[in-house]
Amino acid sequence: MTSQRASVPAQLDHILHEMSEVRVTPKGERRVRVDLAADRLPTLLQLLKGHGGFLHLSSISCVDWPETDEFELVYHVWSYESKMLISAHTLIAKSPGRFVSVYDIHAPAGFYERDIHEMYGVHFEGSPNLNKFILTSWHGPPPMLKSFDTRAYVDETYAWRDYNPQWLKDIAAKGGGIEE
Amino acid sequence: MSENAGSRNPLQLRDQPETCRTADAEERSAWQRVIGRFADNCRARSLFVLHYCTGCGAIELPPTITSRFDMERVGVSPMVTPRQADILLITGYVALKTLKRVILSYEQMQAPKYVIGFGSCTINGGMYWNSYATIKQLDQYIPTDLFIAGCMPRPEAVQEVFLELMRMIDAGKANAWRDYYRNYDHYLANQQALFGPQWHTPTDIVAEAKHYGLMGPGTTGPHTRLLDQHAEWALDRIPEDYPERGENERSER
Ligand code: SF4
């Protein structure tokens, strides 16, 4: 599916040409979205870094798709030369939820992977450190999962303050007040 | 003071050096009240604030401190360390990780110390009411003297609460800090509920309570006993050849 390659900048087209089965969607003058299979992602990052000057991995983001039981990982790489941002999207199965680390290509990935591991439970093989990062006293499931019920967790962990003064009752009697 | 207080004036003792006497409890407490009243009055006029800028509300503090509202004109001034501060101002939401640091800072402060919860987040969680990561009621973990409602409170409200605190100190009513000693087990229970039974701080609150005569029925309890267990556990793990081990054992026995 390379129908949209025509509008992709020439030097990028040159790189993506070396890979098959990638879908390239230009999103703007300097933003490109790439969709590809998970096993090709490290190759793409390597090629972009080596041949396209995409040296800067600005972030890795993760989306939890409960309907299809998949995680979507998005790698954002930036080139200082062509001033262009490529977002590479890939889908991995939620179980076992494993993926390969790209720490050897972009060292900052170590932090992003540690963060995603903590918040979503994705395990990155070869990542230098997947210890607790921000949630030091956390014993529950990864909290950014859609299946995690924040309200139920709060109800059972924290106590609500009892506050029901007369003026609030008066407002409620007139049909106003707090609604959930 | 009562009628006969004049005849017990200690200054008169100079004329009779041979009659050496000690002040009785009633007299001593009368003097303590006078001195305490004077000290409270002075205390209320020189307050240093450690503003622990946890949440977004901290942005209201620069205008409060600097020329526009200038809180120094009422005698309140910022301070950078907990040991020299009188007021701990918690400006906004407190994440679990932050709460640990807040408790450590609070315990390092010298009594008398006052805590002000700033913004709705410290009262009932505010707009983070359903967040898994932030606490909902600051006063469950450290005793709080005053709260400022609002998201976020304006500098006028901050100044009003400082003035109210000064009135309370002057009247000897800002005593929440004593509650931490008297009911330490309660606060520790809430802390342990979040951080686990291993939770402990470097400050020995029970020993401080003993030292200052602030032991209450709730100072020790099932949760402070966990602290003792932890101390024993840690002592067991000091290596044999560690030079201080002998000292610890000696002081234990
Ligand atoms: S009360 Fe409002 S302004 Fe203050 S920390 Fe909470 S959300 Fe932020």
What does this protein structure show overall?
The complex is a heterodimer of chains A (180) and B (253). Chain A is 26% helix and 25% strand. With 180 residues, chain A is an alpha/beta fold. Chain A has one domain (2-132): 2-Layer Sandwich (Beta Polymerase, domain 2). In chain A, helix 1 (10-16) crosses helix 2 (41-52). Mean pLDDT of chain A is 87; it is low at 1-6. Chain B has helices spanning 25-43, 61-65, 96-108, 120-124, 155-170, 176-182, 184-195, 205-211, 222-236, 243-252, and strands at residues 47-52, 76-78, 87-91, 114-118, 146-148. In chain B, strand 1 (47-52), helix 2 (61-65) and strand 2 form a beta-alpha-beta unit. Chain B is globular. Chain B is an alpha/beta fold. Chain B contains ten helices and five strands; from the N terminus they run H-E-H-E-E-H-E-H-E-H-H-H-H-H-H. Chain B has two domains: 31-174, Rossmann fold (3-Layer(aba) Sandwich), CATH 3.40.50.12280; 177-233, no CATH class. Helices cover 43% and strands 9% of the residues of chain B. Chain B has a five-stranded parallel β-sheet with strand order 2-1-3-4-5. Classes of the chains: A alpha/beta (180), B alpha/beta (253). The A-B interface holds A 134-140, 143, 148, 150-151, 153-154, 157-161, 163 and B 96-97, 100, 123-125, 129-133, 135-137, 140, 193-196. The complex binds iron/sulfur cluster (SF4). Iron/sulfur cluster (SF4) binds at residues 55-57, 92-93, 119-121, 126-127, 151-152 of chain B.
